[in-house]
Each structure stands twice: as structure tokens, then as C-alpha cells.
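Researcher: Let's do a round of design. I'm pasting the C-alpha cells now; please hold your answer until I've finished.
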């Protein structure tokens, strides 16, 4: 099931505070993961709880790692969201598949 960018933005607004949104850079991985697939969040690893997508929230953009960040795991079947706290960005294996959704609460300007 495809999830639109607008639906992802709606889920972000429903699961983060306005303060978190306005103070962070938020990225969306359009490549889905499957249930039980290993997801690497920096040095942390988890088994995916369902088929879904990852939204990465850098709560302190511009700071060196490690600092608090969030991973929103979005279930592509019912749009439920699980939030995971972490201290590192996604592993490099994902870096090419993430796109910037919001930068300090604003949609990025495409050049």
C-alpha cells in the first residue's frame, strides 16, 4: 500500500508536538520495510513490528551525534505509529532513500 507524502505529514503532526516539529529536521524513508526485518538506527537494531515506513526526526539538527532523535515507525496497513527514541541517525545503508519532509516546521524549497 502506498502512503502519500500528505498522509505522512498528517501522521507527523499527530504524533509530535509543535515544539518538536519546529525545532527539528524530519526525514521520510519512502522505501518500506517488512515485518521482522532488521532496522538499524545507528548502532541500535530492532526487528520491525509490522510492514511500514520510517520517519526520522533529528531533534537537534546541526549538533554532532550522539543526541536525542526519534524514529516514527508507520504501519502501512492501519497508519498506526510507534515512536522509538534513539541517539544516532539512520545507518548509511538508508541514507540515499530518505528525503527531507520538514525543516524546522517548514516544507523545504525544491531547487
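Researcher: That's everything. Go ahead.
Model: Designed sequence:
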Amino acid at each position: 500500500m502506498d502512503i502519500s507524502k500528505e498522509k505522512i505529514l498528517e501522521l507527523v503532526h499527530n504524533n509530535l508536538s509543535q515544539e518538536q516539529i519546529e525545532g527539528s529536521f524530519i526525514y521520510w524513508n519512502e522505501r518500506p520495510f517488512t515485518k521482522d526485518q532488521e532496522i538499524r538506527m545507528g548502532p541500535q537494531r530492532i526487528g520491525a513490528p509490522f510492514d511500514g515506513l520510517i520517519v526520522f526526526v533529528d531533534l537537534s539538527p546541526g549538533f554532532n551525534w550522539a543526541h536525542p532523535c526519534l524514529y516514527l515507525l508507520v504501519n502501512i496497513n492501519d497508519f498506526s505509529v510507534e515512536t522509538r527514541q534513539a541517539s544516532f541517525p539512520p545507518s548509511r545503508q538508508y541514507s540515499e532513500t530518505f528525503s527531507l519532509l520538514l525543516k524546522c516546521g517548514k516544507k523545504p524549497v525544491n531547487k
